[in-house]
């Protein structure tokens, strides 16, 4: 095998070797969303930012809505919490302060920041809105 042909095999070999690692990472990130992020979004965000109640033009019901964002730009920028409007609003420091009223706890804010930093993977669909409180 010539050196050129061997060089062409490198991307294939890397992909084959890394695929199981990346799949495990995706599953871990989805589990992180389901166990840590979804409960915060459900309790603290969806009462105002659900599909029918998309205050600010943003629904927190699905990832694509958060990526699209609203008038202020993308709500989340995967891998970049500092560029994510949602993360900035959670700090309660600027003009936009979310949620209204008391700020999220440091733990809750940290979970959402970590989620965005990790790429904002989405897990199973958030529970559909029921009649009454979440």
In short:
With 134 residues, the chain is mainly alpha-helical. It has helices at 3-45, 63-68, 85-90, 106-117.
Structure description:
The chain has a domain at 26-117. It has helices at residues 3-45, 63-68, 85-90, 106-117. 50% of the residues lie in helices and 0% in strands. It contains four helices and no strands. By secondary structure, it is mostly helical.
Shape: globular
What is the residue-mean pLDDT, rounded to a whole number? 81
How big a fraction of the residues is strand?
under 5%
Instruction: Briefly note the structural class of the backbone.
Output: mainly alpha
| Unreliable residue runs | none
What integer value in Å does the Rg equal?
Answer: 19 Å
Distance between the termini: 63 Å
Summarize the helix and strand pattern as letters. Answer: HHHH
The number of helical segments is: 4
Major sheet attributes: none
Residue share in helix: 40-55%
> How many runs of DSSP E, i.e. beta strands?
0
Highlighted features:
134 residues; globular
Mind sketching the topology for me?
Blueprint: H1 3-45, H2 63-68, H3 85-90, H4 106-117
Helix pairs in contact: 1-4
